Amino acid sequence: MKPHLTNPMIEEVSELFAALGDPSRLKILRSLLDAGTPLSQGALAEAAGLSQANASKHLACLSRVGLVLREPQGNSVFFRPVLPLVEEICGIVCGHVSERVRSSYKALS
Known about the structure:
Layout: H1 7-20, H2 23-35, E1 39-40, H3 41-48, H4 52-64, E2 68-73, E3 76-81, H5 85-108
Antiparallel strand pairs: 1-3, 2-3
Helix pairs in contact: 2-3, 3-4
C-alpha cells in the first residue's frame, strides 16, 4: 500500500529531489559513497572539485533534506551519507541512466 502524502510531505519530497538535481551535490554524495567513511568538508570539496564555500553551501542543503549527517569531531565537521537511503536512490537512478545509455548505444550500432 502506498503511503498517503499530505501537502507538507509532498513539499518535503520535492525539496529532496531538488537537492539531488544539482551535479555538485551528486559529486559530493558519490564521493561519500566511494569513501565508505565519513569525510571532512575539505576532503569533500577537493573530491568534488569545489571551493570550500561552495562545498559548505551544498553540504548544508544535503544535510537539511536529510541525505547526509553532520558529525562534529573537535574543530572539524565530518559528513556521512544517510544509508541505505542514498545508496538506494543512487542505485535506482544510476541503473536507469546506465540502461538508457546502453539502449541508445545499441540503437546507434
